[in-house]
Structure formats: C-alpha cells, structure tokens
C-alpha cells in the first residue's frame, strides 16, 4: 500500500524499516555497552507509536505489534523480550560488585602510562547506575509485554507507578530528547582518556625506537603504506585462480535462419522434432491399450476367484435320553455340503495382474523426457519465427516454407496422435497457426487440401477450416466435382463438412461464371442428388439438403437460363426413380407451385437450415413463369411423356403411373399450377371478347387440345400395331 501511495518503482525491503533495524541493533549490542539504553529508547519510540488523526487514523492503541505478525517477526519479538531479561540480569549481577578505588602513589602516577608492566586497573561502573538500569529495563519489559497498550488507547495517569507513565508518555509522543541520565558518563570519559593517552604516547615516541620495535607499525606514516599492504596480504592464503569459463548450452537449440527460407532444411527440422512427439503418443496409446487389456483380464478373473466345492463333515448329535433312560452316546453322522474355496492359481494371477497394472500406472505418471519438451518448444519457436517474418514481409520463399511446414505437420497426424490428448492439442495448435497464415485463402492450395482430406478422412475436422474453394473461382467447379465423386454412404459426414465450404451464392454473384460452367455444376449437383437416391439413408440426409439448396440457387440464378436443363434432368432421373421427392418439392417451391410454409418444415430441416446458413424459403420470392414459358413447358412435357410411354414395352401396355408413383403428388401439383396458369391466361385474353365469338371458341379449342395432348400419354390406350 505504501508503494502504491508513494508511487515507488520498487517496493523497499521490509528489513529496511527502522523498527526492524533498531530491534536488530538492540539484540546485537553487548549488555555493558553504555549506549544500550538509548538504543532501546529508539526502538520503543517506534514500537509504542500511537499515530493519531493527523495521519487519518482513529485514536487507538500502539501500532508496533502489527509489524510483528509473521512467524519470523514473532520470533524476533520473542528474542527481544528474552534480551531485556538477560540485560536486566547482567546489571543486577553487576550491581552487587563493590567498586574500590586504588590508593594513589607518586611513583605510580608518574609511571602508570609508561610502564607496560604496571597497567591501570579496569574501569568499574558504579553499582547505583547498575541498579537504575535494572529498574529501567524492568520498565521496558512491562511496556513490551502489555498487550493492552497495543489494542486500545490507555489513559496513562491511571497506570501503576512501576510503568513510569511520564516516560511512557515521552516514548509514545516520540519526544526526541535522549535519556542521558542513564549513560555512564564516567565510563565515556575514562575511554576518552585512554584513547588520548595512547595517541600521545605514539606521537611522543622517538622514531628510532619505532624502527627497533618490530612489533610496532606506524600506521600514520604514508611511506609505510605499501609495506603494510603487502604484509597484510602475506598473512592471507594465496587466492585460487579464477574458475574456467564453461560455455552453457541452451536447453533448446536455436532455429537456424536457413530453415525460414529453405524448404528442405525446414522439412528436416520439423520431421526430427515431430517424430519425437509422434513416438511419445504411440507409447502412450500402447500403454493405454495394455492397461485396458490387463483390466479386462482382471475383470474376467474375479468371478473365478472363489468356487464352491463339495465336502464331507463329521458331526456329533447329542441326545438327552427318553423316558428317563440315559442316552448311550452321541450319534456320529456324516454330512455332505458345499464350502467356498479360494482358487490359488486364479488368486496368484490376479495378484500378478494388479502388480503389473500398478507398475504400468507408475510409468505413465512419470514425467516426460526432456527431449519431448525440447522438440515441442523447438517446433513452436520455428513456427513463431516463420509467422513473424512472413507478417513483416510476405516473401514467396517464406510462403513456400510455411506451406511445406503445414503439410509436414499434417503428415504426422495419425490415429495415435489423435488419441493422445496432449499431442492432439499440440498438433491442432500448429496446424491452426500455419493454416490461418499460409493456407487459408491461398488459391493454389485448395486442390491439395481437398485431396489430403479425401485421402485421409480423419484429417477432415483438423484441416477442413482451411479449405476455401471460393478463393479459387476458376477451380470451383473442379473442386466441387472431386467432392461429388467421393460421395458414399461412409463418407457422408466428410462430404457434408466440405460442402459447407462452398459458398455457391457468393461464387455466382462475384465470380460471374459463364453459362457452360454453371451448366456443368448443375449436372454435378444432379449427379449427387441421384447418388443420394429416392429414399436416402439417414447419413445422406444432410448432404441431400445441401445439394438441394445448390440446385435451387442455380435454378434461380439468371432465370430461365437453367430452367430447361433443370426440368430435363428432373424428368429423366424421376423416370428411373433416382431422385428423392424432396428434389421435386424444392423445385416446385422455386416455381411458385408450392407455398413456402414453415409449418410443413420438419425440425431436422429447420436445424439444418440454421446450421448451414441456407436462406429460408418464405424469405425468397418464387419465380413466375411467363405465358410463353408456361405453354412451352406444357408442350415439352406432353412430348416427353409421350416419348417415355413409347420407349418401353411395359409402359406402352400398362401406362406411366407405375413408373411415376413416388412423384405423383408433386406431378399433380405441377400440372395443376401449369393448367391453372394456362386457363387464367386464356381467360384474361378473352375477357373483352363477347361470349360465343370465334376468338373465344378458338382459344377454348386450343386450350382443350393442349390439355388432351398433356393427358394423352397417361390415360389414352395406345395401338401397338401401328405404333400409336
């Protein structure tokens, strides 16, 4: 909080706080040091601090205890309390000593400072001062142990005299006046005189005596500095030479710059690293399969562990006698019963299996080898460097390396890597990054991506997001052809996923393909609808709806360019019962023959439409055929059904109904729409003509002849002798 408030770039260490520094100084200072009472005074001024309203705090207890909450700080506070007791004991013992001054003599006064054989006696502090210090440190102990001072504000005059409230008030108010009365002034003066006497002795000694005294070194002479330094160095051990410089090898090798522009070098790097990951996945999958097999064997053996076996047991039946006659003894009988017995062979086998399973689990939980992490990080570094350099400058060489690396990673994806979650996740991330940067939207790679998916269907969820056929409008039809020719019952899910990548509406409106390309695509869609069949399997329903959507998009585009082709393909395939009636329904909705009702749409269709983004039928206006198109359609249908009736012997004999039973409701709806439009056209053209006029009669005769011609192949018998 202090760092944030003061906006310090770095938070200072806790040990730099004054309260800890004075505490450590109080512990390190000897008990007989004259400045020790002042050191404790400084510490207690911080420990017993009471910050008031001037700091934005409410009046309360002291805050020193808050700085001693951690375990190490609690131990420090405990040492402080123990140290106070030790210092108090020291001064108590020292106060018992007697202070005796030696009697001064004239001879001793003149020779004390000059004779080393007659040193001065050591200085002794007065017992009265020791007693005062005992009392002072006792007061310190009371302050330090009283938790009331830390928890709440205390009225100091109410404290007992042994607390010395006036001194406690000085401490809490942080009065900087030092308690000099507790200093040993005589001791300080004595030490000062000792140092001064030694200094005068050194300065007054003749130079020749200093040189003769080998044990004396003149520390004031600048000329002897070199000698002193060398003498001190000779007293230390010879330093060891500097350690040899050892080159540290990076845990992950650097990516060579040549790998970012050379496809062969990058392929070698990727193969070497991903091979390690693939081997690890295979080992993990094999270990999993082994554990499943052993657990299955264990489950099969558990029911055989115990078995009931017949066993004869001898039993004695006691009797109590009868009629007062004693019993002659117990009756011994033999009973045959079944008793459970453990099969030792099965038990040994189960014990061995459990031991093997535990060993296998221990191996599985072992940390992976370092080479595995190195390979993963090395490949990640390569991909990152490749993407970064391509982002800065889209070089063809780097693009080629990126494309090559994408297919290299894809080639290492197999069933084992897909089954092992860590490897699957890693490969998916690599493919996603490379695919988004180098493959997605690349027109040259659409065909190769599609070929890879069709050859290895398990890769479809992994790399299908990067299949963008709209990026290659010139190859759109050929790519669609490859997808349609691969449509089978077992590939329906893959084909559906690929079909969702073809945005046919965008291709038609943006690429503006020529009529021949659109016709070829229409034939491919028709072929796919025929592959789905009249009664599609459940697996083919989702592709069928997508193909039907593409069928209607082509029919609507630049209508009536493909109207005749759609009608021709629809009729020829329906004659052989190759199409689903759903194809008729979507076609009739486009032509306005069926109402686009939401209520008739099933729930699977609704969910499918929302999933693939197909426009709902009610939001697309139907196409209205012109009177000329209506008439041409009726004439073409009349001729087509007549040719169809005459094409086969069974149809000539039994009619068209049997061949068109699956589509009769749709055919009736289509004819009803056509005939109704023809009648409305004729009525609208004759509204201003009088009834019975030649024009009205001619119009009715023409309409009647067209209807007769339309129904003739269905209801009129054919004379097989003259060919009709």
Automatic annotation (TrEMBL):
Q: Does the keyword NADP apply?
A: no
Pfam families noted in UniProt: TPR_Epg5, TPR_Epg5_2
Q: Which domain of life is it from?
A: Eukaryota
Keyword list (alphabetical) reads:
Autophagy
| Region listing for Disordered, in residue ranges | 95-125, 597-627
> Coiled-coil ranges per the record?
none
Epg5-like central TPR repeats domain residues are: 442-721
Decide whether keyword Manganese is in the record: no
Epg5-like TPR domain location, by residue? 1-184
So what family is this one in? Belongs to the EPG5 family.
Protein name according to UniProt: Ectopic P-granules autophagy protein 5 homolog
């Amino acid at each position: 909080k202090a760092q944030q408030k003061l906006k310090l770039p770095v938070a200072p260490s806790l040990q730099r706080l004054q309260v800890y520094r004075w505490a450590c100084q109080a512990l390190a200072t000897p008990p007989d040091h004259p400045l020790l009472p002042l050191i404790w005074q400084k510490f207690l001024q911080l420990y017993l601090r009471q910050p008031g309203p001037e700091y934005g705090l409410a009046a309360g207890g002291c805050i020193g205890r808050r700085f001693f909450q951690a375990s190490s700080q609690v131990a420090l506070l405990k040492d402080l309390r123990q140290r106070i007791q030790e210092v108090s004991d020291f001064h108590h013992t020292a106060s018992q000593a007697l202070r005796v001054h030696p009697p001064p003599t004239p001879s001793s006064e003149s020779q004390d400072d000059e004779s080393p054989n007659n040193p001065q006696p050591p200085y002794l502090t007065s017992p009265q001062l020791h007693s005062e210090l005992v009392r002072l440190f006792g007061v310190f102990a009371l302050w330090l142990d009283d938790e009331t001072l830390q928890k709440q504000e205390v009225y100091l005059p109410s404290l007992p005299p042994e607390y010395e409230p006036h001194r406690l008030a000085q401490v809490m108010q942080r009065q900087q006046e030092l308690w000099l009365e507790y200093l040993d002034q005589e001791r300080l003066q004595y030490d000062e005189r000792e140092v001064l006497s030694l200094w005068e002795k050194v300065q007054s000694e003749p130079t020749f005596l200093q040189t003769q005294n080998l044990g004396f070194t003149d520390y004031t002479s600048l000329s002897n500095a070199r000698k002193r330094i060398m003498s001190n160095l000779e007293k230390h051990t010879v330093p060891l030479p500097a350690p040899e410089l050892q080159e540290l090898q990076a845990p992950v090798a650097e990516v060579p710059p040549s790998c970012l522009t050379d496809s062969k070098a990058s392929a070698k790097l990727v193969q070497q690293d991903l091979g390690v990951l693939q081997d690890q996945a295979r080992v993990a999958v094999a270990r999993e399969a082994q554990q499943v097999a052993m657990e299955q064997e264990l489950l099969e053996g558990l029911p055989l562990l115990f078995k009931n076996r017949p066993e004869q047991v001898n039993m004695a039946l006691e009797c109590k006698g009868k009629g007062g006659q004693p019993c002659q003894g117990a009756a011994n009988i033999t009973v045959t019963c079944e008793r459970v017995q453990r099969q030792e062979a099965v038990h040994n086998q189960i014990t061995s299996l459990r031991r093997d399973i535990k060993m296998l689990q221990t191996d599985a939980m072992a940390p992976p080898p370092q080479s595995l992490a190195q390979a993963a990080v090395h490949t990640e570094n390569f991909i990152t460097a490749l993407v970064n350099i391509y982002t800065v400058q889209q070089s063809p060489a780097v693009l080629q390396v990126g494309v090559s690396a994408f297919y290299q990673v894809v080639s290492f994806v197999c069933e084992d890597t897909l089954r092992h979650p860590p490897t699957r996740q890693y490969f998916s991330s690599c493919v996603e990054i490379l695919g988004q940067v180098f493959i997605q939207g690349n027109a040259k790679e659409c065909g190769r991506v599609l070929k890879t998916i069709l050859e290895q269907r398990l890769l479809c969820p992994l790399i299908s997001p990067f299949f963008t056929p709209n990026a290659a409008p010139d190859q759109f039809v050929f790519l669609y052809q490859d997808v349609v020719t691969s449509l089978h019952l077992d590939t329906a899910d893959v084909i559906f996923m690929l079909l969702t990548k073809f945005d046919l509406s965008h291709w038609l409106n943006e690429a503006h393909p020529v009529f021949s390309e659109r016709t070829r695509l229409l034939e491919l869609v028709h072929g796919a609808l025929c592959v789905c069949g009249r009664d599609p399997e459940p697996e083919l329903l989702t592709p069928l709806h997508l193909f039907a959507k593409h069928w209607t998009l082509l029919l609507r585009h630049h209508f009536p360019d493909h109207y005749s082709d759609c009608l021709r393909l629809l009729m020829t395939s329906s004659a052989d019962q190759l199409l689903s009636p759903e194809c008729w329904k979507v076609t009739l909705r486009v032509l306005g023959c069926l109402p686009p009702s939401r209520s008739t749409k099933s729930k699977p269709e609704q969910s499918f439409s929302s999933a693939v983004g197909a426009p709902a039928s009610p939001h697309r206006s139907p196409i209205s055929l012109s009177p000329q198109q209506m008439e041409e359609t009726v004439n073409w249908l009349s001729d087509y059904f007549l040719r169809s009736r005459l094409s086969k012997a069974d149809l000539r004999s039994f009619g068209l109904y049997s061949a068109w039973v699956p589509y009769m409701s749709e055919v009736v709806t289509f004819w009803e729409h056509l005939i109704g439009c023809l009648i409305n056209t004729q009525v609208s053209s004759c509204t201003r003509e009088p009834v019975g006029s030649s024009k009205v009669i001619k119009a009715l005769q023409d309409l009647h002849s067209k209807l007769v011609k339309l129904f003739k192949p269905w209801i009129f018998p054919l004379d097989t002798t003259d060919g009709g």
